[in-house]
Amino acid sequence: MFKAGSISRRVFTSVAVLAAVTTQTGVAVAQEKPFTGQRLSVLMVGHPTTDAVRKALPDFTAATGIDVDLEVVPEADSVPKMMLEFSAGSGRYDVVEASSIHVQGFVGSKYIVPLDDIATKYGQFYDKTDFVPAYLKPNVVEGKLYGLPLFGESSFLMYRKDLFEQYGIAVPKTFDEIETAAKTVKEKSNGEIVGITMRGQQGIQGVYIWASYLWGMGGSFLTADGKSALDTPEATKALETFAHVLREYGPVGVANMGWEENRLLFQQGKAAMTLDATVNGAFNEDPAVSTVAGKIGYAPVPVQTTTPKGGSSSLAVFNLHVASDSQQQEAAWLFVSWATSKQQQIHSLETDPNSGVTSIAAMNSEAFNKRYGAFKEAMLASLANGNPQYIPTVPQANELVNNAGIAVSKVLAGTTTAADALKEANELNNAALSR
Amino acid sequence: MHITRNPTRNFYRPIIGFLAATSAALLLYAIWLCLHNISLMSTKGTQFIGLSNFVRLATDWRGVQALGRTALFVLLATSIEVVLGIAIAMFLDQDFRGKKIVRAVILVPMIMTPVIAGLTWRFLFNAQSGMINYWLSLVGIAPVDWLGNPSVALYAVLIADIWQWTPFVVLLAMATLETIPKDLVEAARMDGASEIRVIWHIILPMLRRTLGVAALIRAIDSVKAFDLFYIMTKGGPALSTETQNLYGYTVAFTNFDISYAMTIALFLTIVTNVALLVLTRFAMPKGIR
Amino acid sequence: MFRKLVFFLVLALILFVTLFPLYWVVTTSLKTLRDAFAMPPVWLFSPTLENYGKVLTNPVFLKGFANSMIISISASVLAIAVASFAAYGIVQQTPARRQSIEGFVLSLRIAPAILFVIPTYYVSMRLGLLNSHGLLIAIYAFINIPFAISLLVTFFEEVPKEMREAGLMDGASELRVFWHLILPVVRGGLVATFILCVLFTWNEFFIALVLSGRNTQTLPVTITSFLTFQGIEWGTLTAAATLIMLPMLILGTLVQGTVVRGMAAGSVKG
Questions:
Q1: What is the tens place of the pLDDT at every residue in B223-265?
Q2: Alpha carbon of A36 to those of A55, A126, A153, B211: distances in Å?
Q3: Phi-psi category of C251—alpha, beta or left, where left has phi over 0 and alpha has psi -120 to 50?
Q4: Contact present, B255 and A432 (Cβ < 8 Å)
Q5: Does the beta-carbon distance from B109 to C224 stay under 8 Å?
Q6: For chain C, which residues make up each domain, given as ranges?
Q7: How crowded is residue A334: how many other Cβ atoms within 10 Å of its Cβ?
Q8: What is the CATH architecture assignment of B61-283?
Q9: Which terminus of chain B, N or C, has fewer Cβ atoms within 10 Å?
């Protein structure tokens, strides 16, 4: 633990000594491999970070003697899979990767274990101070550490600097200004360019973006005493505004647009603005897939009220947890701390670059700055204001999001008014919360 | 028959017996699940709750709507596929070069992996970069929001389903048409019967049974349709493509409410069976069951 | 002449609509990312095999391919072996008895998968069978048996009754007649039924989605893992799709006639 701390500072100061340091760590670990021969079963979601971990697994095995079986499934299917196993107490997975919205539920159901004691004992990969604090925080429940962040993101507003200049538009700071800007773009470009594009797909996709409006307008998903808060005037206003701007100035097909469709539309230069995850910056700035590289400005997610109940930019973190049913919790911890270690994260920037690294050292590396420098500042600012409760974190989170998603989708499609749709979702959410 | 004990029964009895026993056991287990409150997210423990889940389903607007949508989809898919399929089969019922190749080509959609068919149609229907809107734009039609407009999305999935399964009816009907004696048709034509009369009075009656079989099978399969919906829309937008089957899946794997999901599945099975029973008893020609 | 022209024009339209999605998958797999998304579409492009390279070096895909092979072939062999006995026995019964047995077999094909997938999950968990190929092989065999019985019955009833009677006359046991006389005659039907079982198992998605694990994931589920959290990799996706479809398109074309017969089997009274 102590030793790892001193190493971290050296890495921090100079990337040049990195090679030497990693070899040194490697040697130090090689001398003690108490878990040689153990075989871990790990469930992770499809993501570049996961690819990087897979490619580096031989290093982990070499350093610890632990073998790893890695199962990778799409994010949407991963939670049902681990839930079935957890609830049956099958002990099938030693380590799982899940979004931080599940941490509370997992802890409440005792599906995952606190790691503080093991961390003190086996700290060779672990450096608490190297994690972006906002990313580490959702893993701490009642003062205990329940996981480590593997990758994370926030959200921000992306806009076309060239178009804004051409049409004389200022960067929007409120949702009304977004609407005005979108209107201007649509009118001045004769409808050639879409004012703003956002995800509108039913379910988490639409809710993930709409939540910015919800929080920014002063609303929230839950009241202070844990009831649903979707039938409030703030929520209604948020949904009306969100649906209106997309229906009037958004792209055709917005109601079925997920992350992918939205990103493509924007990076093909067909829209003037989008509100989405920080990771999109990497795609915008990659000339191999983007026609608008270098033309994009990045700004914080707008807020409409001076007294929001929580930040209007998201904070989504994917963490690695050790399962309670695991018979090899020490080895599992070593894997968790290795996969999230600064060495592995810096290494991942070479094999499978991705802007969602959670290590401060990785973020300060040359590779990161070269690739993601264009939006790094804005991303860090969004992160600092990121709202960890952005999406509800109660055990019933999935069902709440599902119901809210139906309301968003209905209003976006114009089949119901915002007040009616949210009233319905509110009742369903209260029923789910009391179940 | 001088042998009273029939040894051929031993060939199927153990197998049919095993199938029956296994299905009965699974069904009983399914019912047991329906009568409890098993939720993967609940820490309350398993309790017997009687018929609460069924009461909940009876007053669940989302479930009722999903059932209606399922019925609509089954009705449209089945009728369009059967009518279109028979029309194409009759159209192809003549001698021409390359008929064998045509038959092979028509088989392609049916054997294409459904997940891949779904992905492909999802992209073809893409509002911005999809091929279908591109063609529409060539003839001056404004882009249609195929998968994003709740009054269109179900029909977009329907089109994909029609594309994939009309060939089944075509090939089934073609096989039947080939067994119709050509001289019968020729004789009628010689007698001066119009083409419409020939089709209506001679060809269609002979296709009756095929028609019934095709409709029955398409109906059963479209009740169970999952892959296309899951890949193309996942039930959205605004629930406009959520069928009963998909609703059951969402309840089980998004809300983790296993018992309620089983209730939905059991209810759907019962409704399907009753509908089939009624249909085969009263609406189907003899010889099909 | 005009009639003929109209005929071929309509025929061309039918073939075009039928084949376009397949054409789109295959050409997209040969395009670079830029060409794949170009609008208006690029019709002429220089094909690249880069996507195939990526797929064929992807361990997850290769594993899925192996799993799909193992599971669909084993499940189909098992189903055919069991079903051929049953079908032989059923064909020899009186029409009334046949009708009730075949009716029962058909009814097994009606239930939606979710009804038995969840109970199956719990049961197999208790038995510690999860994540084993055996589980999926057993499930798929179980599903294929009713189908194979329905289809094989149509092949067995084509065999002239006299053949069996002559065999019995000569003093052969029922088992001997079945094995040495009848089975060789319906060989073609067995192969066709086997191929169809492989095809259905290979393409099946829902059961695999819920019941397959790290070691047993089949291709339709594997391909959805190309739909990652961070988007769809259309190039690799379509290349993988082509590789998944190709064997089945070839097999399906080989047994053309039987595909339709198989799907309709059991609902037509013979």
A1: 989 999 998 988 878 899 999 989 998 898 788 888 999 999 9
A2: 20, 19, 35, 66
A3: alpha
A4: yes
A5: no
A6: 59-264
A7: 27
A8: Orthogonal Bundle (1.10)
A9: N
> How far apart (Å, rounded) are the C-alpha atoms in residues C208 and C206?
5
Spatial neighbors of A314 by CB under 8 A, at least 6 apart, are A153, A154, A155, A208, A211, A212, A277, A386, A387, A390, A391
- The angle subtended at Cα A82 by Cα A77 and Cα A87, nearest 5°, is 130
Does the pLDDT value for residue A25 go beyond 80?
Answer: no
- Work out the burial of residue B127: count CB atoms within 10 Å of its CB; fewer than 13 is exposed, 13-18 middle, 19 or more buried: buried
The closest alpha carbon to A435, from B47, B64, B29, B263, belongs to: B47
Nearest one of A282, B82, B27, A61 to C107, comparing CA atoms: B27
Whether residue A277 contacts residue A205, with contact meaning beta carbons closer than 8 Å, is answered with: no
pLDDT bracket for residue A412 (50, 70, 90): very high
pLDDT for A30 beyond 60: no
pLDDT in tens, A156-210: 999 999 999 999 999 999 999 999 999 999 999 998 899 999 999 888 889 999 9
DSSP per position, A235-301: HHHHHHHHHHHHHHHS-TTGGG--HHHHHHHHHTT-BSEEEEETTHHHHHT-TTT-S-TT-EEEEPP
> How many percent of chain A have pLDDT more than 90?
60
Rounding to the nearest 10 degrees, give the CA dihedral for residues A123, A129, A135, A137: 80
C9 to B95, B109, B163, C6: CA distances (angstroms): 16, 21, 19, 5
Which helix (H) or strand (E) segment holds residue A319: the answer is strand A315-322
Least confident among A280-289, A329-338, C136-145 = A280-289
C228 in contact with A at a CB cutoff of 8 Å?
Answer: yes
Do the Cβ atoms of A46 and C225 come within 8 Å? yes
Amino acid (1-letter code) at residue C188: G
- Give contacts of A75 with chain C, Cβ < 8 Å: 228-229
- Is pLDDT of C47 > 90? no
- Provide the token pair at B219: 């109906």
pLDDT-based confidence at C121, cuts 50/70/90?
confident
**Tens digit of pLDDT for each residue in B19-36?**
999 999 988 999 999 999
B41 min Cα distance to partner chain A (Å) = 6
Q: Chain A neighbours among C 160-189 (CB < 8 Å)?
A: none
What would the two tokens of residue B18 be?
A: 């095993």
- Within 24-43 of C, beta carbons closer than 8 Å to A belong to 33-34, 37
pLDDT for position C268: 44
Q: For residue C232, name the pLDDT band (cuts at 50, 70, 90).
A: low
Residue from B13, B18, B101, B108 whose CB has the most chain C CBs within 10 Å, to mutate: B108
Q: Which amino acid is at C125?
A: M
Q: What CATH number should be reported for the domain whose range is C59-264?
A: 1.10.3720.10
CA distance A306 to chain B (A): 32
Does the ipTM exceed 0.85?
yes
Nearest 5°: CA angle at B158, between B153 and B163?
130
d(CA A304, CA A289): 34
